[in-house]
Amino acid sequence: MPQHNHHHHQDLSSLLAFKASADPLGSALPTWSGPNPCSGPWLGLKCDQFDRVTNINLDGSSLTGPIAPLLQLKHLKLLSLQRNSLSGRLPPLSNLSNPSLRILSLSHNVLDGPINVSLPNLLVLRLDRNRFSGGLDSVRLDRVLDFNVSENRLSGAILGRLTGFPPSSFFGNLALCGSPLPSCLSSSVNDSASTSTTCIKTLAKLGVTSVLYIVAIDAMVITLVLAVILVVYACVKRRMKRKAMSRYSMMSKNRSEERDQEVGGGLTAFEGGENLRIDCLLKASAEVLGKGTMGITYKAIIDEGGLAVAVKRLTTSRYSNGKAFDRCVRLIGRVRHEHIVSLRACYRNDGERLLVYDYMPNGSLQTLLHNNGYAMDWMRRKEILMGVAEGLEHIHANPSREPHVHGNIKPSNILIDGQGNARVSDWGLTLIAHNGFDDGERELARVQGAGARERAEEGDEGDGCVVTEKAAGGMGREAEAMAMVKIGMMCTKEAAGERPTMRQVVGMMSEVLEFAGEAA
């Protein structure tokens, strides 16, 4: 039997089992008949190109009974059964049972029992106005954007990422507590008092010699454990030192083998800039494009062929000298991506520092948003959002010994190329800024430190600000725009460890746009 026929048979069996219990009289789902749910007039279904059911939307269809049969559909992405009379328990959901599920909306039913949902990729979970009971400790939702369990019979503490949702997501559960609801009453004081009393009674039953013997054994055990820890620490430290020395020698060897070309006269060319000559660059006609804290940017026309490039003349007082500067510029010059402005060459001589980039003819996002007198439509905003997110994800995920970060993401540093694509510019310039970066390492440590982590492991606060500003244009479908704003807000959380990585951001944005397209 062909694979798609096998999936088709499984889906059909699950759908008919649900119909038998949810619509025993055949009045709610009269079109659910026939051998193939993906080719007939089956109400509320959508399928993929392999005839597998992916979307079910049966809101307000007067359905009854359990929903378990529908959750046996392995390729189901969206299940919306709001405002029905469905009953019974919600079966445990995990990546093993429901790997594709992204949206689960079961509001306004009479479902009961515990909520056991562990779906890291789920984006929407709406279970409000049911009869669910128990706690939320079995709810694991790493990427959820829309969460509501209000007006149920839940109890216990709200934990983890769920504390980031508003109180309205939990209202109507009188026994729920913890942020964002009032704090839970702690019984730790009573527990401590009880424990202390028990310990005193136990000690009273022991003789003095026994107590001293126990204390001596405990002291020996603690001393032995400390000795083992010190030995392990010394071994690890010695191994790390050897690895660091090996890494340094490897880096030195790799640098000598780099393809970056010293063209001469202080000019270092990267991929695509091999034909640049410093004499032509310095003689080129220039037009000021903008001024900032990092320096002044010019549009320069190279004589040969009228090639246009963007030249950033760095403010020399802000940047370190020598090897640290060269190392960071080489790091920047090697990155290539369709949504990143490419650095083609660098000139450093006699205090002059020039960075030569591809010229972007359509200005910046800042201009598009605020200065040109027209409002971008929602489709255009989405394209720019995705382009910026993919560019930043590439910067963060680029395999390298060095940490890759942007350090100064904002609308004026997002440029638009000749094809209308968004490109991230000026990335990495904060790494070579003079403030606290004389040895070429201090600023790298600061940027990836606990106070200002922008790397992929911890997420990016600045990226979220750009996402929020662009999505807040108020155009297009409200739900889609609000989902984008929520992603942006996730990226601006104060604690770096609570922010999603750029890889996760790109994934969430892609899925939001995919589901919005399917619902259109």
From TrEMBL:
Pfam families: LRRNT_2 (PF08263), Pkinase (PF00069)
Membrane topology: Single-pass membrane protein
Main location: membrane
Annotated binding of ATP, by residue: 312
Domain of life from the UniProt record: Eukaryota
A Gene Ontology cellular-component term: plasma membrane
TM region(s), chain numbering: 211-236
The keyword Magnesium is annotated on this UniProt entry: no
Alphabetical list of InterPro entries matching this protein: Kinase-like_dom_sf, LRR_dom_sf, LRR_N_plant-typ, PRK1-6/SRF4-like, Prot_kinase_dom, Protein_kinase_ATP_BS
Keywords from the named record: ATP-binding, Kinase, Leucine-rich repeat, Membrane, Nucleotide-binding, Receptor, Repeat, Transferase, Transmembrane, Transmembrane helix
Molecular function (Gene Ontology), one example: ATP binding
Keyword Cell membrane in record: no
Subcellular compartments: Cell membrane
Cross-referenced PROSITE patterns: PROTEIN_KINASE_ATP, PROTEIN_KINASE_DOM
All residue ranges annotated as the Protein kinase domain in the record: 283-520
Protein name per UniProt: Inactive receptor kinase
